[in-house]
Amino acid sequence: VQLQAYGGGLVQAGGSLRLSCAASGSIANINAMGWYRQAPGKQRELVATITFSGSTNYADSVAGRFTVSRDNAKNTVHLQMNSLKPEDTAVYYCYADRPWRNRAWGQGTLVTVSS
Question: Residue 28: pLDDT above 90?
């Protein structure tokens, strides 16, 4: 499966961005999808996950501000980011899990939040 992420950019603190990630190729049996992020000098961290049935999970740092959603018919996952903070600045990576397969990663999209 190939993942193409887009929607990153520069935004002021308090603003919003919407990231999207489209899956193509071997998309059968994709279960969980979601987003990680990696800030400069820091480890990659989980931001949000969503299962095929729509169950979600969020990092404490983004809960209440970010919303993950997916469109199973279009094999896409989205991340609506509101009330952005400078500490949200990072490269955001989408991922997709399938049974018995290694996790698939998107190429990353940069989000920069200015203060």
Answer: no
